[in-house]
């Protein structure tokens, strides 16, 4: 993750003169989305061992709590993987990062209607996935 963050800021430093004043955050998020997608593809091709940072953070919690957090994160990841990369980007930016739809549209360089449509479809797919998971687990959503 540190390498990916460094890539984002290196890209930003190389294009600093070309980034419009006031649009720096949007540019960073757009580059971050692309770098994250590339990093995800790389991890899928060759998964690696936990980084030192994750191991250090893990040592600060109880084993039961860590197991529960890990399982919840894995479950969320499985749900997000059900979405296309385009839908996932909009869904994560809106639902998890708190961006507004106009900010997302500008950041991803897509029309506002496209961002709205992708969010609507992503929510529908994610909710259907959650409903399907609760049927399998026998739990309420």
Q: Can you tag this structure with a few keywords?
A:
single chain; mainly alpha; globular; 0% strand
Give a structural overview:
- The protein has 141 residues and is mostly helical.
- Helix content is 76%, strand content 0%.
- It is built from 7 helices and no strands.
- Helix 2 packs across helix 6 and helix 6 (101-108) crosses helix 7.
- The longest helix has 26 residues, at 112-137.
- The radius of gyration is 18 Å and the shape is globular.
The count of helical stretches stands at 7
What does the radius of gyration come to? 18 Å
Amount of helix: over 70%
Report the oligomer: single chain
Please give the alpha-carbon distance between the first and last residues: 31 Å
- Which H/E pattern describes the elements? HHHHHHH
Tell me the β content. Answer: under 5%
Helix-strand makeup class: mainly alpha
Uncertain ranges: none
Mean pLDDT: 79
Compose a concise summary of this entry.
By secondary structure, this protein is mostly helical.
């Amino acid at each position: 993750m540190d390498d990916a963050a460094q890539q984002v800021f290196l890209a930003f430093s190389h294009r600093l003169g070309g980034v419009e004043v006031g649009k720096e955050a949007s540019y960073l998020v757009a580059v971050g989305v692309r770098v994250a997608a590339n990093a995800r593809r790389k991890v899928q091709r060759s998964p690696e061992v936990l980084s030192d940072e994750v191991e250090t953070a893990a040592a600060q919690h109880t084993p039961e709590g860590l197991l529960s957090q890990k399982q919840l994160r894995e479950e969320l990841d499985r749900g997000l993987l059900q979405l296309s990369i385009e839908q996932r980007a909009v869904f994560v930016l809106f639902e998890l990062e708190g961006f507004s739809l106009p900010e997302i549209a500008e950041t991803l360089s897509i029309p506002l209607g496209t961002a709205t449509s992708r969010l609507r479809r992503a929510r529908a797919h994610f909710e259907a996935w959650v409903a399907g998971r609760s049927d399998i687990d026998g739990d309420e959503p």
